[in-house]
Write a structure and sequence with these properties.
By secondary structure, the protein is an alpha+beta fold. 19% of the residues lie in helices and 35% in strands. It starts with a helix and ends in an 8-residue tail after the last strand.
């Protein structure tokens, strides 16, 4: 019983370790409207950009992109899907000005 439990724990840790890293490529691209910009609390170039997704939900994305985004712009957001951990969002292209 103890050996089986150790085996299950090791396999679980390996699977978690495999899924922890962000995938190399995004699985889909969404357009989102930029709502607000702010410096991240930890600084060092990190920014928090809040976007409104097409379904109406708001997401804050922690990123290193420069502040060329402005409220009202459309941004291309890449969704990096993971199996166990939450999906990661990141900006993948330059913004389009909203009409």
């Amino acid at each position: 019983m103890k050996k089986e439990l150790i085996f299950v724990v090791i396999v679980g840790l390996v699977l978690l370790g495999f899924d922890y890293q962000r995938p190399d490529t995004h699985s889909r691209i969404l357009k989102a409207e930029v709502i607000s910009l702010a410096e991240a609390p930890e600084g060092n170039g990190w920014r928090l950009i809040t976007v409104k997704m097409s379904d109406g939900s708001e997401q804050s994305i922690r990123t290193l992109v420069p502040f060329f985004y402005k409220p009202g712009y459309l941004a291309h957001v890449g969704v990096f899907e993971r199996r166990i951990f939450p999906d990661e969002l990141d900006f993948i292209a330059t913004p389009d000005a909203m009409p």
